[in-house]
Amino acid sequence: MIKFNEISSKTGADFVTQLITLYDEEVTYFDKGRSCLKNLDSYMVNLRSELANLQANQEQDKMELQAIRDKLKPPKPETLTTAIDQRQKEEFSLTQAGDASFGLNIHGNLNKRTEGIHRWQKRHCKVDNFHFSIAHNQNSPPTANLYLLTCQVKETPSTAVDGKRNCFHLISHDRTYHFEAPSEVAMRQWTTVIRNNIDQSIKSEVGDLTAHTKVDTNSDDYKLREFVKRIIHKIKTTPGNDRCVDCGRPDPTWFAVNLGVLVCIHCSGAHRKLGVHNSRIRSLDLDNPVTAELLLLYKIGNQMYNDVFKATARPSDNISHDTNSIEERHAHIRSKHEDKKYIKRLCANAEEMGQVLHKCVESKDIRGLLQVFGEGVKLGSPIPNSLYEETALHIAVTKEDETSLHIVDFLAQNCQGDDIDKQDTDGKTGEILHWLS
């Protein structure tokens, strides 16, 4: 009996030993698995980043291919005359220019903001036969049918409306409708088709004012267009303007009206995301800019701007259109233009900045004005020790002559919010003084 108990005890000990051995092996197995997965962490992080960049690049390539397709796409028969007139640059339009290649018809779902409660709801919209109709769905009757002859359209691609982007406003004679498109490309398609309908509706009512007309080379309109062409040529051939102010891509054709710089189409999207209070983007080729919009671009340009806004930038801070991702370009552009990260600080405090601002306005020094603007001076604040609480804009307007209009324009373009409407002790704003002058 004693021998039997001894044998049973040994058997139980062996069993426990095997359990411990099995436990150790399981722990070792799972430790190795955890170690293997941990080694994959950095790979997965890089993979996610590369995937995001790939998707962003694919979206950018898609937009470029769509733009090329739209340029190569032949015009429809009903818009052939308009297309020919546009290529000859003889078109006269009472509205903003459209693009005949987009045609006159479009339909689909858009988000519409309900007035009063500011709630966005999906609606089926359609543009056809000079009318814009709005319905709850594709099969329901329209709740609104607007005659586009009496409407105007305004885009807000990069400005958030109630947190929404890619929005446009359709302004009728009695109210304004707010819509959100699925993407910026879709938003531009809708607004372009609407403009085409507005243009065609005008021509259907009053006749095509450009049909069978010859260009009068002695007319003031022709001379003005040729003058604008010479200005644009001069701007493009100015040293530094042959490359994008941000990424260095050659032959930029977009520009920031209020900053006076040329940017490429890729960086123009990042500028739009900064908001119009920081950068207002236009196209040299597509928007038919007028001389007033080109003034700062002619006076400042990429070289002067970068001398100021990249004064402390290191070579590693620069970005390239070839090597940097979209996210890196956007971050750099925000740091440079909105945060003004690379400005060399020359003024000790706000009072000194105000004094320097006053001096630059008096001496018509646009580079000095650009420098103090980059340092963060409040353009709409009263000048230090000003007897009549005048702002820099008040002083610039009162001293305005044909050699200092760019100073007035820079101040008016870059004053924030209601600063442009600030009054001096006589109750005059800079804007009023400008009109009086």
Report the order of strands and helices.
HHEEEEEEEHHEEHEHHHHHHHH
User: What's the story with the biggest beta sheet?
Assistant: 7 strands, antiparallel
Helix content range: 40-55%
Strands of the widest sheet, in order across it, are 4-3-2-1-7-6-5
Uncertain segments are 77-95, 430-437
**Shape annotation:** extended
The overall pLDDT average reads 80
Distance between the termini: 124 Å
Global Rg: 31 Å
Number of helices: 13
Strand content: 5-15%
Would you give an account of this structure?
Helix 4 packs parallel to helix 6 and helix 11 runs antiparallel to helix 12. A hairpin with a 6-residue loop joins strand 3 (131-135) and strand 4 (142-147). The longest helix has 71 residues, at 2-72. It is extended, with a radius of gyration of 31 Å. With 437 residues, it is α+β, with helices and mostly antiparallel strands. The protein has helices at residues 2-72, 80-88, 184-206, 220-236, 265-273, 291-299, 301-309, 326-338, 350-363, 366-374, 392-398, 405-414, 430-436, and strands at residues 106-114, 119-128, 131-135, 142-147, 152-156, 167-171, 176-180, 254-256, 261-263, 281-283. A seven-stranded antiparallel beta sheet has the order 4-3-2-1-7-6-5, covered by helices on one side. Strands 9-8-10 form a three-stranded antiparallel beta sheet. It starts with a helix and ends with a helix. It is built from 13 helices and ten strands.
